[in-house]
Amino acid sequence: MLSRKCTGQFFQVLPGAGGRRGLCPRAPSQAPSVCPAVEGTALPLLAAYRTDEGQPWVLPVVKKVEQMIANDNSLNHEYLPILGLPEFRANASRIALGDDSPAIKENRIGSVQSLGGTGALRIGAEFLRRWYNGNNNTATPVYVSAPSWENHNSVFTDAGFKDIRTYHYWDAAKRGLDLQGLLGDMEKAPEFSIFILHACAHNPTGTDPTPDQWKQIAAVMKRRFLFPFFDSAYQGFASGSLDKDAWAVRYFVSEGFELFCAQSFSKNFGLYNERVGNLTVVGKDADNVQRVLSQMEKIVRTTWSNPPSQGARIVATTLSSPQLFAEWKDNVKTMADRVLLMRSELRSRLESLGTPGTWNHITEQIGMFSFTGLNPKQVEYMIKEKHIYLMASGRINMCGLTTKNLDYVAKSIHEAVTKIQ
Amino acid sequence: DSWWSHVEMGPPDPILGVTEAFKRDTNSKKMNLGVGAYRDDNGKPFVLNCVRKAEAMIASKKMDKEYLPIAGLADFTRASAELALGENSEAFKSGRYVTVQGISGTGSLRIGANFLQRFFKSSRDVYLPKPSWGNHTPIFRDAGLQLQAYRYYDPKTCSLDFSGAMDDISKIPEKSIILLHACAHNPTGVDPRQEQWKELAAMVKKRNLLVYFDMAYQGFASGDINRDAWAVRHFIEQGINVVLSQSYAKNMGLYGERAGAFTVICSDAEEAKRVESQLKILIRPMYSNPPLNGARIASIILNTPDLRKEWLVEVKGMADRIISMRNQLVSNLKKEGSSHNWQHITDQIGMFCFTGLKPEQVERLIKEFSIYMTKDGRISVAGVTSGNVGYLAHAIHQVTK
Fold first, then answer.
1. With bands split at pLDDT 50, 70 and 90, how would you rate the model's confidence at B48?
2. Where is the Aminotransferase class I/classII large domain (chain A) (predicted)?
């Protein structure tokens, strides 16, 4: 007679390093051990927008469209196709590539509705592991920027890739892009290596290549047969302009690259928990893209079968109505403008205070995050003494700044920098 | 020239491909008996009343859209565990379980498969019943496990090959993984009786197997949620720490909202915490955190007494309609003058029925009658209505006489 104890031996499971349970449930490994709890000074660690009142913001256009959906009794909860809602897929890719994209005109694009940007990355990664650079070539090097969103590494590792490397990106000394290091790594990378590129609003540094720098990057990648896998989580959110934020992706397309672009609508639509994402595939021709999609379908089928419908409906409805689309762009600009304002206000305060160092990077960086340049000791001071939560890397979520807390945050940074070296 | 020149065209998905072919057909009498989605007696998708009410409650609350935790909506996962295990379950009350939200049944199965691949080092083999849901094999394979089979369906009797199953299971190497359909076996509709479940439990315990239950039809099979969960609960009571995948696609009609859950019964609450932390590490690089909408609807229904009562009535209504269609199909076949024994149609349970039709006969049904089903002769009884059951019986008789 077996006792329950025997079956307990099945799992030799050690606690995971996923962060303190119940506190920072999604905190990456380097997150401080306590979540923001102090009102007025709490800066959300995670990538979520906040209003000037420090509150989450459901976009007005989203509220409107949700009401439309709720009132539409003809809608049901039937399964979506495996690759997702057709109107969503087409519109989502159109947003990334542009209305006048040659790739769309030439019918050589494909789309896979995915569970957020993460899901899109994962489907793309699984496909590449199976079909890129041979069959099931798990040895193909995958390059992730140093630093990058920490989940990039896990996505490609879990997809089966054995050789994840970093490429130079952030120059801590000059607080900017290490272009020479980046290009150098690309020159040295084995041919056919996969490079994860942040389309805009690099996470966590907020530092993007200029158009000229992107051109240099593209030239090297083309010459060395490197595969561009764009991660586009902040389109529209970074500069306030959808087109400007998609410039890099579209440039690569115009240069004839075959590429993947993982899109997230979590931030720019504020649809975080609905898991709305899209994997855009750009290929040489329709036939190739069709075959790629047919294989991606098989991958989707064993991962989640078919994607969730609510978020996709909201996005599809919004993007396919000129009026709602205009409203959405306006809502996006509202968010982007508030972040840009907070950046300029923080910088000017630091400069007025005479805080040691240069602070132009605060306004030169873009998107939700900023690499302040604070070192781990200074970060600890901010957390322990000032109850302002940032990552040990010095990454701050600009969305957490409000007109009410700007002075406090600026003074705190000033203190940290002057007191702690 | 292209990176993808060597990429082969993937074969169309056999199950969902049936619906696609059905859509293209212009015959007004066409019937879609392919995919397992419930239809009302008018052949229309059915949105449950309790779902509409839950949605109205959600709309009125004007909640934000912040990310869920990786493990999902806590009210949902707790209610899901209680639904499966029963409120009086010792395992539930003691907290020696972990339930994470999954992307409906498939996503929950996949999380479990990945978890077993990473942490169940005793074996790489998953034993599936013969036959099983077509997607089980690629799910486990993509997770890095190997597939084996045990006898289950007896095509001669269109019922359970119990002695064959027991014989095969008795020979499964210790500490292998065995998958069991908790109720309403897909695709056959053939379930063990309770006495047979008892023997199966004793056998898997004797063989020290890791039991993986797939429960996609709780409530939908017999109309009684407790009856449909009987096997899962019995196994746990026998000291078998099962893992379990649940889906709310059919029993709440939440198909496209992707509401599901994966549960691990553990030795104690402390082990459950460790297991949960590892499940989260698996989920994060897959899709970060799960979608809220379906889980919230399910949670409100399960946790609001009036809505829960209403749900139980509605799910019984769906189950009853299916049972009624089974009865009508058999009586219509008799009326057509069929000499075959069609008792298995009413003996089988749940959404699906293994008709016993051969591929050539299925082919004829599709081509000559525009009646669509999968090649294995599986029909979704949910696609049968009082309006078309006569036509279906007629067609089946034509291809089998």
1. very high
2. 49-413
How big is the A-B interface in CB pairs under 8 Å? 252
Other Cβ atoms less than 10 A from the Cβ of A415: the count is 17
ipTM above 0.90, yes or no: yes
Instruction: Please work out, in degrees rounded to the nearest 5, the angle formed at the alpha carbon of residue B150 by the alpha carbons of B148 and B154.
Output: 135
Q: Work out whether the CA dihedral A91, A97, A100, A106 comes out positive or negative.
A: negative
pLDDT at B213 over 80: yes
CA A269 to chain centre: 13
Could B65 and A58 be called an inter-chain contact, meaning their C-beta atoms sit closer than 8 Å? Answer: yes
Beta carbons within 8 Å of A231's beta carbon, 6+ residues apart:
A117, A121, A149, A152, A196, A197, A198, A199, A261, A262
Question: Residue A102 in contact with residue A254, Cβ under 8 Å?
Answer: yes
Question: Across the 421 residues of chain A, what is the mean pLDDT of every consecutive 10-residue run?
Answer: 33 42 32 35 71 95 95 94 97 98 98 98 98 97 97 98 98 93 98 98 96 98 98 96 98 98 98 98 98 98 97 98 98 97 97 95 94 93 92 91 95 96 87
The distance of B169 to chain A (nearest Cα, Å) reads: 17
Instruction: Tell me which chain A residues have a C-beta less than 8 angstroms from the C-beta of B280.
Output: 16, 18, 25
B67–A273 CB contact, under 8 Å: yes
Q: Using an 8 Å Cβ cutoff, are A129 and A159 in contact?
A: yes
Residues of B acting as catalytic residues: 133, 214, 250
With beta carbons under 8 A apart, name residues in chain A contacting B13.
82, 297-298, 301
Q: What secondary structure does DSSP assign to B164-228, as a single string?
A: HHHHHHHTSPTT-EEEEESSS-TTT-----HHHHHHHHHHHHHTTPEEEEEES-TTTSSS-HHHH
| Three-point CA angle A198, A204, A210, nearest 5° | 45
Q: What does the block give as tokens for B317?
A: 């209504």
Percentage of chain B exceeding pLDDT 70: 100
Which of A127, A149, A305 to substitute to test the interface with B, most B CBs within 10 Å?
Answer: A305
